[in-house]
Design brief:
Layout: E1 2-6, E2 9-13, H1 15-30, E3 35-43, E4 49-55, E5 61-65, H2 75-90
Antiparallel strand pairs: 1-2, 1-5, 2-3, 3-4
Helix pairs in contact: 1-2
């Protein structure tokens, strides 16, 4: 499961959905745009439900993996995020490549 810290909450989602959400947020920030997306999430010990997330240039998110499984059909969310990313890139923003788990190990390199 991919954990995402956002707006003082920690949500759990599928690894692929979490990676795409971070990638889309980075692209939106680079293009000074914002959007609302709905993704399947678990908050705390609750059941999996659809959560709407506003992302844009001012979004502050952190993401990490854990060993807990996320057992839900996420194909619609993956397809939606991939479509949004492709559409944004189609407007001329090549943006960052996909950011996978462990891709950024040293934050000093970002400065």
């Amino acid at each position: 499961m991919r954990r995402i810290s956002y707006a003082e909450q920690v949500m759990g989602t599928d690894e692929r959905v979490g990676a795409l959400l971070i990638q889309y947020a980075a692209l939106l920030a680079r293009s000074s745009s914002a959007d609302t997306v709905s993704i399947p999430c678990r908050i705390g010990t609750q059941e999996i439900e659809s959560v709407s997330v506003l992302i844009g240039p001012a979004s502050q998110m952190a993401s990490w993996s854990d060993d807990e499984p996320f057992e839900a059909d996420v194909s619609a969310a993956v397809a939606d995020l991939e479509h949004r990313i492709a559409s944004l890139r189609g407007r001329g923003d090549s943006g960052p490549e996909a950011i996978g788990p462990g891709a950024i190990d040293e934050f000093d390199e970002l400065a």
